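Notebook entry, structure prediction.
Reason for the run: the old model in the group folder had no record of what sequence produced it. Starting over properly, with the input documented here first.
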Amino acid sequence: MRLGDYNGGWLSNQTPGKLVLKGFGALLVIGVLCISGGFFLGWFKAGTDIIGPDNVREQFRFAYDYIEAADASGQNWCSIRQAELESTDPSVREQRTSQRLAIEMNYDRNIVAPYNARMDDMFRAGLVHPPDVPDRAPTLRTTTMRLCPSIAQQ
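New structure, fully documented this time:
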């Protein structure tokens, strides 16, 4: 028995299977139109922008800046440590030691602490994260061992 035999309308030539397939097809077409329309009208653009590589890089610009600051402080530490080791004048050596200790204190306070605090922020660090940004700031020891291993070991 076919649907619609009783009223002779457009359903008279439709089987239940054909009706179900046509219904799924109509839903599929409507879904594709809504999704493509959403992209064309910009409804979904914000979501794709948030996880886009350019936005992630920009959101983590602070991390790249802190890593550059860590490298600069590490280079300064290496230079001052070398001058401290090579100095024969006790007053110059004492001055270099003071400078080196100041770099060590400032490194932890001005680089490691703020970097780690921002990375601990779940909304910034947990959702999207560039692969070249470390989860924790490198210690001064790690930085100097990478930049000047022979001096850092002394």
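Summary: The radius of gyration is 32 Å.
The old model has been moved to the deprecated folder.
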